[in-house]
Amino acid sequence: MFVDISEILMKKGQSVTFDISKDLSSDDYKPNINKFLSPVKVEGTVTNVDGKFELKAKGSVNVLLSCSRCLKDIEQELLFDIDEIYTNTGNEEEAETFNGSIIELSSVVRRSILFSLPMKVVCSEDCKGLCPVCGKDLNEGECNCDTSYINPKFESLRSLFKCDEEV
Predict the structure, then answer these.
(1) d(CA 133, CA 146)
(2) Nearest 5 degrees, angle CA 87-CA 57-CA 53?
(3) Do residues 22 and 36 touch, judged by C-beta distance below 8 A?
(4) Which residue of 49, 62, 106, 140 lies most exposed, with the fewest beta carbons within 10 A?
(5) Is the peptide bond before 39 cis (omega within 30 degrees of 0)?
(6) How far is residue 127's CA from residue 153's CA, in Å, rounded to a whole number?
(7) What is the mean pLDDT of residues 89-106?
(8) What is the SS3 assignment for 32-97?
(9) Distance in angstroms (rounded) separating the CA atoms of residues 26 and 153
(10) Which residues of 1-19 are buried (b: 16+ CB within 10 A; e: fewer)?
(11) CB–CB of 25/63 below 8 Å?
(12) In angstroms, how far is the first alpha carbon of the chain from the final one?
């Protein structure tokens, strides 16, 4: 993903707009994204601000994610904003750098997609998840596993909660 800024390279205050679409199905975003269902679309402007280039853009992509409780696939649209400063001098600490008259957007788009991912994805608020013993999807029905077993490594924590005392 590239933006050609040759038109505004020496013209302070000038802007160039762009609208880019790229298929990311071959890119590896594992383990966060199972599959890209649509190309990523990014549109915005690059403005020459006193020799620094300010990029403001909006992007979107449809992806397939896994439910954090039951591991079912969930289709979700990710929306993200990009607000970056680019420089070709390398003197700015907070700025991305570029050479020539082409700004390469792949790394900032990749980062923006990862930042836009939800912390926890669930297929529904009442998702029951998987049985910790046999792995059966509890949304499809109960299993006959004994889930009262406590790992001996965590037995000392039980005393902190005083589970055995009656109230």
Answers:
(1) 8
(2) 20
(3) no
(4) 140
(5) no
(6) 28
(7) 75
(8) CCCEECCCEEEEEEEEEECCEEEEEEEEEEEEEEECCCCCCEEEEEEEEEEEEEEECCCCCCCCEE
(9) 43
(10) bebebeebeeeeeebbebe
(11) no
(12) 64
Q: In the predicted model, what is the mean pLDDT of residues 76-80?
A: 94
With tokens 């930042």, the residue in question is 115
Which position has the token pair 């924590």?
157
Query: Taking 90 as the threshold, does the pLDDT of residue 58 lie above it?
Result: yes
| SS3 label, residue 16 | strand
What is the rounded CA–CA span in Å between residue 108 and residue 82?
Answer: 8
Structural tokens at position 95: 């700025």
pLDDT above 70 (res 163): no
At 19 the three-state DSSP class reads strand
How far apart are alpha carbons 11 and 46 in whole angstroms?
12
The pLDDT of residue 162 is 64
Q: pTM for the whole thing? A: 0.75
**What does the chain come to in residues?**
167
Q: Report the mean per-residue pLDDT for the chain.
A: 84
